[in-house]
Amino acid sequence: MHKKQNILLFILLISVSIVFSGCTSATSQKDQITIVGTADIQGLMEPFKQEYEINGSKVEIMGGGISRIASVLKQAKSENPSGTFVLSSGDDLMGRYFHTFKGEAIYSLMSESGYGVYAPGNHEFDKGTEVFAKSLDYASFDTICSDLIVEGTALEGRCVSYKIVNANGAKIGFFSLMTEDLPLITSPGKVKLSADNTVSARKMVEVLKGEQCDIIIAVTHIGLDQDKSIAQKVEGIDVIFGGHSHEVTKQLVRVGDTLIVNGGEEGSYVLKLLLHLDNNHRIKKEEAEYFLIPVIDPITADKKVETILEAYKAQLPATVVLGKTTVEWDLTTDALRKGESSVADLINDLLRDKFSVDIVMNNGGAFRGKKVYPPGNITDTMLHEIDEFSNNAYMMNIKGKYLQQILEHSAASYGRGGLMQVSGIHYTIDLSKQPQVIKHNDDGSWTIEQAGERVSNIDIVMPDGSLAPVEDDKVYKVLSNAYLVTHSGDGYFWFEQYGTDKKNTYTTFYTVMAGYLEKHTVMDPKPVDGRLKILP
Question: Would you state the pLDDT for residue 115?
Answer without folding.
Answer: 99
